[in-house]
């Protein structure tokens, strides 16, 4: 049984089988869950048609699999350890039984407030257990949750609520992260001015600051759960019913609401966590992501609970109150599996090594990274200073669209190489494509990364826009899922992700569309036109570099940059703020009016010796001006 792959030979064999007979492969794993009714058809549909389905006709509830299923055997086991923003604040552990009760209570509240199967519920909350409880309560009653990262602005929140016509918003009064305070309820109030579909707002107390209140619309979480029953019968879902929507940025237009479904997502998150991390019953698993991103959905909430693991919910930041915070938490809870982003590693390795050495990290068994390419220096620091050279590093490549980890070492099983995501999980068939759209068969190769065969965890659509779904993922390389990433494969067949090949930036592991940022900058009355590119940044991985053509009289450029940054923070989020802004008189455009971003990228990274072919530019002299220009 391949439920847990235990050796590299076994991996190779299981992989081979998974390619020869994908349906049989997934059926075996799917059989380990609790289904109320067995599925009718293991797999149907295709990339060409954009109608992939898995386990259709199967009836289940994912929360029953996360919680109810474990109560008899491990009701008293810790499901979540909550570590607050400040180490001296109140911390707590929640057992599987307690979590089950809390989720049932809140599921009853949601139903009482008129939420039923298929309704969309937006969640905009601090990283506390209540965020997981709200999420699981939605899933338990069949409501489609749409979590919005609490770092997003009122406008971004509103846009996401409107796109899916959410009926309810669940939020906090506010949150604290590091020494920052974010007034979530105020931001929600502002967002809801343009969201007519939201009938009810449930507010969970966290900061106890004064907030404004809309009678009849707003209600306190703690009041509502007081009399709610702790018994709740989970709503039966079809495997292909939507479980959640999660918005992510693309190269054009507004964020796309990725739709994940109950059955396939359940199977894939559980399977990937178990095999990549080689997790075992007594392990303490900590993923430092925010639940507002897919990493948090899959590997803080669903994956660990499905596997009956104890996980940490961390409200804070890597550097508050000091840069030893991660390692302090690892020591305190004897964390065995630690999963974070390269950007955090790069930030922490700049600090005094004292902050690491102070703590006993001997409980660690596996270290993981996710979200962006990891440079070799950071990889080695992580390996030596945190893992003491004894913990396998799993560099996990995947995306919001994929639902779970796709290419990654299996901890302790797959040989690792710094900077390499290494090999695909069984069931996943990657390929590299050349410019002509043909698959490159040579082992050593470089090209666009595609996936050749559907897998259970993949996105089933873009909410309300199936045409865009088809266009974005299945048109460039017909018959394949196009990831948007470039990739290199070495002589051993190991994969190394080189980064996005479209106009998507990856800033500190956050995915941002250049068009989105440009649209925000263009809102400034003095900006005529702008173009945004990424450039190498030693902590963030990629920084945001904005070029803008402006009307005369912008005044002091530093002050102007602040105006632009405030605007981008307000429209999108502080994470999208340009690191650099250069005022320019023109942009390098082709005769057909397309901005040649390649040139801007070179200028932004200070590499202007060879700009390549500029003969198709409408006005090549613009380039000279841009090179001479100054960035702030
Ligand atoms: C993009 C997806 C996966 C959850 C968090 C991000 C980049 C992701 C890696 C990695 C190199 C990576 C890709 C991908 N990426 N993991 N291990 N090595 N690049 O999810 O926000 O949907 O972003 O993140 O460019 O396409 P996301």
How are the elements arranged and paired?
Layout (H helix, E strand, L loop, with lengths): L7 H13 L1 H9 L10 E4 L8 E4 L2 E2 L1 H5 L4 H4 L3 E6 L8 E4 H17 L7 E5 L4 H13 L2 E4 L6 H11 L3 E5 L2 E3 L2 E3 L1 H9 L7 E5 L13 E3 H6 L10 E2 L3 E7 L7 E6 H16 L6 E4 L6 H13 L3 E5 L10 H9 L3 E4 L1 H8 L4 H4 L8 E5 L5 H11 L6 E4 L33 E4 L11 E7 L9 E2 L3 H9 L6 E9 L5 E6 L3 E4 L2 E4 H9 L4 E11 L3 E10 L6 H15 L8 E5 L12 H8 L16 H8 L4
Parallel strand pairs: 4-17, 6-7, 6-8, 7-14, 8-11, 11-12, 16-17, 16-18, 18-19, 19-20, 29-30
Antiparallel strand pairs: 1-2, 3-13, 4-5, 9-10, 14-15, 15-23, 21-22, 22-24, 24-25, 26-27, 28-29
The structure holds 5'-O-[(S)-butoxy(hydroxy)phosphoryl]adenosine.
5'-O-[(S)-butoxy(hydroxy)phosphoryl]adenosine (WT7) binds next to helix 11, strand 20, strand 24 and strand 25.
Cα separation of the termini: 59 Å
Q: What is the total domain count?
A: 2
Structural class: alpha/beta
Q: Main β-sheet, in a few words?
A: 8 strands, mixed
CATH class of the largest domain: Alpha Beta
Q: Work out the helix count.
A: 20
Oligomeric composition of the shown chains = single chain
CATH architecture of the largest domain: 3-Layer(aba) Sandwich
Q: Look at the structure and name the CATH superfamily of the largest domain.
A: ANL, N-terminal domain
Helix content: 25-40%
Radius of gyration, in Å, reads: 24 Å
Strand content: 15-25%
The dominant shape is: globular
Cofactors, ions and other ligands in the entry: 5'-O-[(S)-butoxy(hydroxy)phosphoryl]adenosine
- How many E-type strands? 30
| CATH overall fold name of the largest domain | Rossmann fold
Low-confidence spans: none
Q: What's the average pLDDT?
A: 96
Task: Record the strand order, biggest sheet.
Answer: 12-11-8-6-7-14-15-23
């Amino acid at each position: 049984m391949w439920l847990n792959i235990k050796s590299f030979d076994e991996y190779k064999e299981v992989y081979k089988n998974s390619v020869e007979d994908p349906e049989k492969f997934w059926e075996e794993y799917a059989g380990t869950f609790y289904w109320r009714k067995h599925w009718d058809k293991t797999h149907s549909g295709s990339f060409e048609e954009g109608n992939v389905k898995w386990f259709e006709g199967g009836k289940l509830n994912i929360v029953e699999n996360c919680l109810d299923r474990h109560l008899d055997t491990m009701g008293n086991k810790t499901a979540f350890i909550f570590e607050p923003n400040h180490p001296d604040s109140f911390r707590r552990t929640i057992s599987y039984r307690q979590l089950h009760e809390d989720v049932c209570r809140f599921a009853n509240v949601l139903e009482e407030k008129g939420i039923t199967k298929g309704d969309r519920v937006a969640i905009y909350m601090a990283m506390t257990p209540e965020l997981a409880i709200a999420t699981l309560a939605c899933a338990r009653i069949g409501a489609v949750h749409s979590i919005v990262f609490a770092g997003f602005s009122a406008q971004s929140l509103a846009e996401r609520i409107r796109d899916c016509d959410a009926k309810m918003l669940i939020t906090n009064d506010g949150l604290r992260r590091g020494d920052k305070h974010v007034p979530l309820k105020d931001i929600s109030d502002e967002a809801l001015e343009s969201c007519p579909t939201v009938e009810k707002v449930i507010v969970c107390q966290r900061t106890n600051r004064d907030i404004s209140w809309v009678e009849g619309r707003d209600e306190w979480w703690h009041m509502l759960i007081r009399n709610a029953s702790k018994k709740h019968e989970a709503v039966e879902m079809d495997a292909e019913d939507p479980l959640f929507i999660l918005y992510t940025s693309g190269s054009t237009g507004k964020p796309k609401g990725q739709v994940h479904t109950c059955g396939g997502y359940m199977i894939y998150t559980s399977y990937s966590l178990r095999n990549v991390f080689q997790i075992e019953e007594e392990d303490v698993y900590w993923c430092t992501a925010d639940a507002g991103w897919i990493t948090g959905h899959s590997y803080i909430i669903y994956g660990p609970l499905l596997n009956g693991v104890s996980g940490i919910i961390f409200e804070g930041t890597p550097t508050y109150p000091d840069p030893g915070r991660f390692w302090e938490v690892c020591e305190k809870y004897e964390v065995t599996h630690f999963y974070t982003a390269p950007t955090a590693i790069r930030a922490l390795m700049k600090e005094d090594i004292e902050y690491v050495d102070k703590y006993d990290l001997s409980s660690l068994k596996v270290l993981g990274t996710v979200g962006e390419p990891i440079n070799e220096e950071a990889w080695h620091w992580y390996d030596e200073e945190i893992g003491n050279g004894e913990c396998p590093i799993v560099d996990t490549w995947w995306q919001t669209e994929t639902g779970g980890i796709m290419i990654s070492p299996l901890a302790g099983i797959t040989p690792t190489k710094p900077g390499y995501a290494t090999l695909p999980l069984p069931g996943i068939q990657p390929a590299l494509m050349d410019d002509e759209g043909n698959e490159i068969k040579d082992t050593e190769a470089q090209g666009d990364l595609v996936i050749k065969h559907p897998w259970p965890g993949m996105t089933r659509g873009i909410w309300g826009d199936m045409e865009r779904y088809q266009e974005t993922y299945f048109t460039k390389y017909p018959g394949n899922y196009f990831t948007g990433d470039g990739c290199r494969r070495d002589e051993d067949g190991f994969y190394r992700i080189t980064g996005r090949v479209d106009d998507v930036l990856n800033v500190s592991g956050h995915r941002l569309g250049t068009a989105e940022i440009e649209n925000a900058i263009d809102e400034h009355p003095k900006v005529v036109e702008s173009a945004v590119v990424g450039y190498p940044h030693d902590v963030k991985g990629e920084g945001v570099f904005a070029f803008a053509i402006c009307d005369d009289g912008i005044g002091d450029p530093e002050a102007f940059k602040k105006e632009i940054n405030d605007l981008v923070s307000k429209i999108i989020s502080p994470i999208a703020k340009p690191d650099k802004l250069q005022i320019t008189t023109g942009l390098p455009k082709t005769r057909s009016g397309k901005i040649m971003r390649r040139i801007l990228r070179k200028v932004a990274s200070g590499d202007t010796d060879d700009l390549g072919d500029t003969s198709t530019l409408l006005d090549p002299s613009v380039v000279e001006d841009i090179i001479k220009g100054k960035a702030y």
